[in-house]
Every structure is written in structure tokens, then in C-alpha cells.
Design brief:
The chain is α/β, with parallel strands linked by helices. Helix content is 54%, strand content 10%. The chain has three domains: 91 residues, Gyrase A, domain 2, CATH 3.30.1360.70; 213 residues, HUPs (Rossmann fold, 3-Layer(aba) Sandwich), CATH 3.40.50; 146 residues, Isoleucyl-tRNA Synthetase, Domain 1. It contains 20 helices and twelve strands. A hairpin with a 2-residue loop joins strand 2 and strand 3. It binds arginine.
């Protein structure tokens, strides 16, 4: 009855109802998919809407609900099974719920919610991928933190993830940069200003090129030189890359994010020719105004550009080469690409090209898009130089957090470390808190509000749970036995129901490539816990009652820490 060792009420219901309806031949999976959580808990904890069964059974939905209610044995899982109109409603038996869920968390600890369904298969996650010589700005924040969260979530489900930072270290922009450097730059200025100076040169190129389009030709020429092994061009390119990587690394250090491969776009240079040959051999390549393209008219898309007039490669060319290489190298069951939604067409196009090349695994390529990030409503653009560097943003977050700690809890030990965990956590949570396709507006007041729906609120709730446990002397590894029916107040049961949901939420987050399912869940869990804490004193005279409540606190602390960990956020024990 317990798939993957987790209590699964939907499965129990599907089993019970399926048995009653066995003659109809209805699949249990089909029933499972119909079961929902009613919006109002007064209606029950789970419900089976009977509309869809109506056709099959040739009866009105309320009649079906009524009949089923009389035929289902609720024990030991349910306190009651009742029909309300067309719904068959299930009310959980508290003692069974409490005992099963809390014992499981106590036994599994930090592994509660994990699964082995991945069976060690490989998933490649292409994320972060900032561009060399361009600033690591908040636009890349989403890719970085969503990709990192997906990495952790899939590992938690038993997959082996390969995180690839497909650095933007190739392309016409380097031609532009070299042109600008040659015209208006100097070694001293670059040594001194680093990325900011490179960015300044890049912006200058664009403003100047508006007046003087010949600059664009010069830039193309420089890029052509890079692609054709010109030493001067390559040396400048390498230098710009080094400067950028050092700066990027500081951001990754702050976020504590690392990659299994840093193979950027340039890595595929020597793999391009083979791709072109293959496209030719498969008769997919067409000439169009001197350029080489794959025509996608039949699929309602503009053509995928493979080679420019001068033979230089494009973003898509390098992506196709990278995909072929990754399939060969990692035998992935899925390859995820985490980028802004603006690139959706790009991915659709080249995924189609891979499919047309005859690779059935094209179906395993998944674009995971996200919306725009803005800061107080301002749209960020590199070309115009209106950017906020991620490093500055993170550092400001840490400083502001330290100021808050100094005000609220000046005696805290290791203040700096905690400020880093909380400040960074605030930014990361800010980027993961809403459905990824929605645009995010980052605001300091919101992100650092310890009482709002924020990372610090979750961390604070976790720290509060830790402090209760410390006071009670319940240390990790202590014998945790308890009397389940002591936890019978509605506030406590609400928390246990939330804890029950965690494994299911992790699974949905993976299936939908949506870390915000976990973020939203953690907020609800924290709300329910704070409600409980408000209503029920934990440290009381009744030893059994205290012990049961402590176990509940311990379980919440554990799940909060695991959930935050999956999002790439630290959970300090004190703050
Ligand atoms: N460097 C690109 C950008 O900043 C993102 C690269 C995403 N990955 C890929 N394989 N195309 O927009």
C-alpha cells in the first residue's frame, strides 16, 4: 500500500474504490488521478469527484457518491467517508495519520521525501550560463538558482545530475568587444575596471555603432578571426574570459553553487564540422542568401540558422553540437535547459532540428523557461548598461541582513555567517518564490521581511523550532518515541497533514520542473507550524504531551531544513 515507503492516501482511496468498482474494469491509476484535496477542510481531507464516473456507471454523480460511501470500509485510514453531492469525501483518522507520518520522518530524518525512482539515471542540467565579458546580472540569477534547485531535487529522487555551465564564451559579441577595446580601450583600464570596463566597452560599441554601422563589419571580422585561429584575437578572447570567470566564481562562492562541467560554447568549436557534415548528409541544410539554414516552414517556425554568410557558427549551431556531445558522453534520460522565456523559439527550433536528424532522444530535450526579473519595475538590459550585478545584489543583501541582526539579536554568535546564509537565502528565495514563468519584481522590503512570505521567514521558523528543541534538551539522535493520540488539536493535525504532503510536493516539483512548488509548500508548512506554536504550548507538565509536541517540532524542523536545502538555501539553527 505504501509506494516508496510513503503513506499515500490517494493510492489507498484508488485501491478501495477500485475494489468496489472492479467489475467496471476501471484502472486504479485513472481513479488516482481524479482524487483531489478539497479547498475547504470542512468538506474532508481528500475527495473523489464522481462526475467522470457517471458515464461509465450510467448513474448520476451524487448517486454514485452516495452508493460508494456505503460500500467503503474506512478503517484504519479514515474516520469517515461521506457523500456530499457529487463528491465522495474522506476524513482522515488522526491517530493513523500522526503515527505513520511522524514515525516515518523520525526514521528517515533528512531523507524524508527522497526516492529511488531515478535509479541512478543521468539528467543533464544546463543552467546559469552567463556570458563572458558581460556582467553576471540578476537576469542570470533565475537560471542559476532554478537550475541548482532542479539539480538538488532530481538528485533527491535518485537521479544522477550533471550540471553544465554552458558559458557564453563564443559569438559575435567577442568581435564587438575586441573592436571596442582596440578603438577605445587600454590594458590598464581593463586591468583596473575588469568586467565593468568590458561592459562599458560593450555598451560604447552599441551606441557608436548606431551612428557608424561599419563598426559592425569590423566586429564580424574580428569574430571571424577568433573562429579561424588568429593569435591576437584569441589572446584577447582568453584574457576577457579569465577576467570574467574570476568574477563569476565569486558569485558562485556566495551562492555555494558548483558545476560538474564548465564546458562553454567555445568547447564545441572542433565538433561543429561534423555536425555540418551530418546535416548535409541528411539533406537538411539549405542555402538562403548565402547562409546555411534548416528550413522549418512545415513546423510553422522560422528557419534555424546554422552558418552565417561568412561561415561563422551561431548560437543554435553550438547548441546542436553540444546536445550530440552530451548524449554521447552522458547518455542522459533528460536534458534540461534553464533560460529566460525569450529563448523559447530558439530551443523549439533546434530541438526540431535534432528530431529531424533522426534522433529519437530529441523528445528528452526540455526547455525550462522563466519570466523576466526586474528590480523595482525597471527592465534590465546589458546593451544600455542598465544592469544590477548579482554580486552587488548579494552583498547588499548580506549587509542589510547583518544590520537587521545587529538590531534584533545583537548577541548572536557567528553573526557574519548567519547574515550570509540569510541574506543569500532571501535573494534565492525571492527568485524561487513564484511560478517560474511569472515575471519577478525584486524588492528589498519584501525579500528581507522576516514575517512575509520570504526565505528569512522560513529560516526564522526553522531557527525557532531549533530553539524549542534546545530548550527541551531534545538533541539529534535522542530516542524519539511518542504517543500519537496526544496530538489531537486541530492546529497540530494541520501541521501533520502538511508534513504528509512533502514527498508528493517534491515529486510534483520535479515533474513540473517547478521549484516554486516547494517554496509555496514551505511557506504553508511554516504558517501551519506558527499557528500551532501560537495555540499550543510545547513545554508543558504532561510529559507525554510535551514529548509528542516536541516530536512534531522536530519533524517540522527536519522538513523545513530539507526543503530549504532542495532550494539551495541554508537553514541556520539560530538567527
Ligand atoms: N548564455 C546564454 C544567455 O545568457 C544562455 C545559455 C543557455 N544554454 C544553452 N545551451 N543555450 O542567454
Amino acid at each position: 500500500m505504501q509506494k516508496n515507503g510513503y503513506l499515500d492516501y490517494k493510492e489507498i482511496i484508488a485501491e478501495k474504490v477500485g475494489t468496489v468498482l472492479v467489475e467496471t474494469g476501471l484502472e486504479k491509476e485513472a481513479l488516482y488521478a481524479l482524487i483531489e484535496y478539497p479547498p475547504d477542510e470542512k468538506l474532508g481531507d481528500l475527495a473523489l469527484p464522481c462526475f467522470q464516473l457517471s458515464k461509465l456507471l450510467k448513474k448520476a454523480p451524487n448517486v454514485i457518491a452516495q452508493e460508494l460511501a456505503g460500500q467503503i470500509d474506512p478503517t484504519p485510514y479514515f474516520a469517515a467517508v461521506k457523500a456530499t453531492g457529487p463528491y465522495l469525501n474522506f476524513f482522515l483518522a488522526p491517530e493513523f495519520l500522526v503515527k505513520t507520518v511522524l514515525e516515518k520522518i523520525v526514521t528517515d530524518g533528512a531523507n524524508y521525501g527522497s526516492r529511488t525512482i531515478g535509479g541512478g539515471q543521468n539528467i543533464v542540467i544546463d543552467f546559469s550560463a552567463p556570458n563572458i565579458a558581460k556582467p553576471f546580472h540578476v537576469g542570470h540569477l533565475c537560471s542559476t538558482v532554478i537550475g541548482n534547485a532542479l539539480y538538488k531535487i532530481f538528485e533527491f529522487l535518485g537521479y544522477n545530475c550533471i550540471g553544465i555551465n554552458h558559458l557564453g564564451d563564443w559569438g559575435t559579441q567577442f568581435g564587438k568587444l575586441i573592436t571596442a577595446y582596440k578603438k577605445w580601450g587600454s590594458a590598464e583600464a581593463v586591468e583596473k575596471g575588469l568586467i565593468k570596463e568590458l561592459m562599458h566597452l560593450y555598451v560604447k560599441f552599441h551606441t557608436e555603432a548606431e551612428q557608424d554601422p561599419s563598426l559592425e563589419d569590423e566586429a564580424r571580422e574580428w569574430f571571424w578571426k577568433i573562429e579561424n585561429g588568429d593569435e591576437e584575437a584569441l589572446a584577447l578572447w582568453r584574457w576577457f574570459k579569465e577576467i570574467s570567470l574570476e568574477e563569476f566564481q565569486r558569485v558562485y562562492d556566495l551562492l555555494e553553487i558548483s558545476f560538474d562541467s564548465m564546458a562553454g560554447e567555445s568547447f564545441y568549436n572542433d565538433k561543429i564540422d561534423a555536425v555540418i557534415e551530418e546535416l548535409k548528409a541528411k539533406q537538411l541544410l539549405e542555402e538562403s542568401e548565402g547562409a546555411a539554414i534548416v528550413n522549418l516552414d512545415d513546423y510553422g517556425m522560422p528557419p534555424c540558422l546554422i552558418l552565417k554568410k561568412d561561415g561563422s557558427t551561431l548560437y543554435a549551431t553550438r547548441d546542436i553540437a553540444a546536445a550530440l556531445y552530451r548524449k554521447k558522453t552522458y547518455q542522459f534520460v533528460k536534458a534540461l535547459y534553464v533560460t529566460g522565456a525569450a529563448q523559447s523559439l530558439h530551443f523549439k527550433q533546434w530541438f526540431k532540428v535534432v528530431e529531424l536528424m533522426g534522433y529519437e532522444w530529441a523528445k528528452d530535450l526540455v526547455h525550462v523557461p522563466f519570466g523576466l526579473v526586474s528590480l523595482k519595475g525597471e527592465k534590465l538590459s546589458t546593451r544600455k548598461g542598465r544592469v544590477v550585478l548579482l554580486e552587488d545584489l548579494l552583498k547588499t543583501a548580506i549587509e542589510k541582513t547583518l544590520a537587521i541582526i545587529n538590531e534584533k539579536n545583537p548577541g548572536l554568535l557567528q553573526k557574519e555567517e548567519v547574515a550570509q546564509m540569510v541574506g543569500v537565502g532571501a535573494v534565492v528565495f525571492g527568485a524561487l518564490s513564484v511560478n517560474r514563468i511569472k515575471d519577478v519584481t525584486f524588492s528589498w522590503e519584501e525579500a528581507l521581511n522576516f514575517e512575509g512570505e520570504t526565505g528569512p521567514y522560513l529560516q526564522y521558523t526553522h531557527a525557532r523550532a531549533c530553539s524549542i528543541l534546545r530548550k527541551a534538551g531534545l538533541t539529534p539522535g535522542a530516542d524519539i518515541t511518542f504517543v500519537p493520540d496526544k496530538l489531537n488539536e486541530p492546529a497540530a493535525l494541520r501541521v501533520v497533514k502538511m508534513l504528509y504532503l512533502f514527498p508528493e510536493k517534491v515529486l510534483s516539483a520535479a515533474n513540473e520542473y517547478e521549484p516554486s512548488i516547494i517554496s509555496r509548500y514551505l511557506i504553508e508548512l511554516a504558517h501551519s507550524f506558527n499557528g500551532f506554536y501560537h495555540e499550543c504550548q510545547v513545554l508543558v507538565d504532561d510529559r507525554d504531551l510535551q514529548q509528542a509536541r516536541l516530536v512534531l517540532v522536530w519533524a517540522v524542523k527536519t522538513v523545513l531544513a530539507t526543503g530549504l536545502g532542495l532550494l539551495g538555501i541554508k537553514a541556520p539553527e539560530q538567527m
